[in-house]
Amino acid sequence: MASQQFDPPSGTRDFLAPALRTREHVFATIRAVFERYGFEPLQTPAFERLETLTGKYGDEGDKLIFKILRRGEHEATGEADLALRYDMTVPLARVVAAYGSQLPAPYKRYAMGPVWRADRPGKGRFREFTQCDIDVVGSASPLADAEVVCALADCLDAVGVRDFRMLVNSRKALTGLLEAYGVPDSLGGGVLTTLDKLDKLPPDVVARELVDGRGLPVPIAAALTGDLTAGDAAERMRIALKDSEQGGAGLAEIDRLLELAGPGVGPERIAFTPSLVRGLDYYTGVIFEVVAEGMPGSIASGGRYDGLIAALGGPDAPACGGSLGVERIIGLLDAAALEQPRLDVALTVLGDETLPELTRLARDLRAAGLRTEVYLATSRKLAKQLKWAADRHARHTVIYGPQDRAAGTATVRNMDTGDQAQVPVASLTAHLAATR
Amino acid sequence: MASQQFDPPSGTRDFLAPALRTREHVFATIRAVFERYGFEPLQTPAFERLETLTGKYGDEGDKLIFKILRRGEHEATGEADLALRYDMTVPLARVVAAYGSQLPAPYKRYAMGPVWRADRPGKGRFREFTQCDIDVVGSASPLADAEVVCALADCLDAVGVRDFRMLVNSRKALTGLLEAYGVPDSLGGGVLTTLDKLDKLPPDVVARELVDGRGLPVPIAAALTGDLTAGDAAERMRIALKDSEQGGAGLAEIDRLLELAGPGVGPERIAFTPSLVRGLDYYTGVIFEVVAEGMPGSIASGGRYDGLIAALGGPDAPACGGSLGVERIIGLLDAAALEQPRLDVALTVLGDETLPELTRLARDLRAAGLRTEVYLATSRKLAKQLKWAADRHARHTVIYGPQDRAAGTATVRNMDTGDQAQVPVASLTAHLAATR
Predict the structure, then answer these.
(1) Nearest chain A residue (CA) to B96
(2) How many CB atoms lie within 10 A of CB B105?
(3) Which helix (H) or strand (E) holds A132?
(4) Most buried of A206, A237, A305, B430 (most Cβ within 10 A)?
(5) Where is the Aminoacyl-transfer RNA synthetases class-II family profile domain (chains A, B) (predicted)?
(6) Where are the domains of chain A?
């Protein structure tokens, strides 16, 4: 094992080639989907001014911000003036404020890159991790919500996560629900926070917390938890919400989303889920979350948050968006081990006098698009170099010894079969390009 | 203009879609070349432990490190425990130390990503900028140097920078040069630092600095500056170095590099340049630098640095490598404005009742690989939506009004020519995919 002194800092990771290639493959696949939808990429700096970030993530969030010490003569003050990006949304609000009319209207952007949070590192929880967001700023249309939902579902399909369910609800429906069940306004927020646990805890445990922790009367708690976990919960809620103005508006926007996005996501994979709450309180319209078999938590989520861009320092614009849990998705795929690109040709070096010819050959092979390496260590023994070629997963090894040289040929060894063939040096590149 | 409050922090940049795509295109082009050479990607965290970085970049470098404040109860100490990556070489040394036998031997890796330096921002000088390095750790072979040099030259060709010159020298040749011209050992380092200015200052100015600033006798200063700037400088040096052991070894390694890499780089673009010094004192073998017409400074550089990995905390391994000045290269290309991907299809929305059909159509078009957007703003006026489609640089706009709907057709407008055609809805995707 590596000495701890050489480990990356706690909560961060070094990505060697195989892991990095798997990640890049997932990112490229997702990017291609976003591009097909006309989302545009945005990249902001790794750090922002400290004041841009503080106060935007609540007290708990603020504690997790990595702050950068002032420099030069100011370093001794121990003060910070910059901070590492904590999410992609605050930088988006800043960019919309800064570039306004230079941006397409509405502004559909995707952002995929690292964010940093000083969380306690744990299984699957990192201090440096990739976030992947799409947002539409400047459109109040239900079509914008549908586009976000369809794009995220397409991404999951594209990376091979097909066995998922998308839960849909609406902030307005939740408000109507509180109204319909007679939950006092003052208890509303707390009640929703507790109801959010229905996906993890049994209904009676949640009901007890609603009573003991939130002060809800027992009959209301029982009715709420009973109806929300019933097999026909959606139908019960449709009836309960009918007479509430907010509830009716919520149902209408849910139905519009199901109508517009359902055929794209797949009707069997998307459903109105009245118990879906989502922890964050900035949502104003539809909300959604994607869960997959065998995965704890969600692998995608989002919704409409019309006041958020303004609250984060941007202009007052309607907006909606969503995130893909790329780290979780990559975690799912790691087991299946993406195929790595192989070395096409390994060139052995049996005598230093052949180096000029071998470098010319390497140049020709690379120009033909073949991934080629020349043996760079000092040994001139063939067995050792064949082991190197095998370790590098080469498809073919070219052996060019004194006899080959005299005959104007080289020996091409197929590393999968062990077959060897004599090939004239002049046609070696064409030969290897053809066997690719 | 944007209010300064919304600008990115001093010395950093926001990359909107056009600039970001140009950058990503350059990075992808470079990556493809490195992959053809069998270099493997490596990505390390944005920050390292502070002690991993301090003391590695000299006093001036240490001052430019962005330090991260300790968190939680330790924040009040004003101390830092982490620091943003300052280059790619110290993390490489840590990775080689940490993963040793898990890495291919020799370890050929490339790294491309941001580094952070608290430099005073200026024209073309940023606090967050991309570095692009290749290194071969664990090979003392001259072929390794040649592979690095050829890979970098191939990258320049691939990104369209073809009018460059690669200057080659050797640390040993420089040592031999001091010996051959009788420069006292004690003055050697300072004399080389001053000779490094011969590419920017006239020979007599450099000679004066050698005498006044470095204490070199006048005849030696005159001979050195005269010979190094003569038209036949390389020939004069070959003669001068012949009798020096170090000088002879240096000439041999230069000649070996020219023999192995010259045909790949192009013999007319690479030359022994005895006045090339390079500022950094960790080089032990060949050194090189690439200059291009109309560019101040170099756009690529590198050499052999056999002791560096150990000095940076890694194992004692021979190594060589080089960097591409990607920010400068991208600066060169910006003027030529890379072609941006266009929107293939803009779908107008003339009535809300058509939204389900339009979302289905969008889905089909995207499934056929066409970059497609649906109009997301509220106006239902065609003129406004055509302007949107033009602003989005769409190739085609689909108009699907009430008459179209009744006829089972849609109108396809070619946005470059203004031509319009009626196309049956059922064959719209095939039609648009064919006109791509």
Answers:
(1) A6
(2) 15
(3) strand A128-137
(4) A237
(5) 1-341
(6) 4-334, 345-434
